[in-house]
Amino acid sequence: MPAVKVHWTRLSKPQFDDLRKRAEESERLAEFSRAHNEIVLALRDLDQAMTKGEPAYRTRKSGGEVRKWVHRFIAVSYAVFPEDQVAWVLKYQPVSSSWPD
Q1: What is the pTM of this model?
Q2: How many C-beta neighbours within 10 Å does residue 36 have?
Q3: Distance between CA 37 and CA 30 in Å, rounded?
Q4: Are 59 and 13 in contact (CB under 8 A)?
Q5: What percentage of residues in the chain have a pLDDT greater than 90?
């Protein structure tokens, strides 16, 4: 269970902020925070980061893999580099475009 350092890309940060704002406006911030914290916790564990979701493709940088994972109502795409013990969150999306309605 090696630890992984998780980073967010410039594009994923505004996507996260948008989802958080939508959750806050619909008074579902606690539910959103729980789900997001579970995602981050899983990505910080190399074994879980390499097995959650489905592999999408290999990265240009050797040894990396992009995976897509749907957790509860959040879809997350991330790149994981096992040798470097680093993961990058690439994209956040709600599973339903009308979430949280």
Answers
A1: 0.91
A2: 19
A3: 10
A4: no
A5: 87
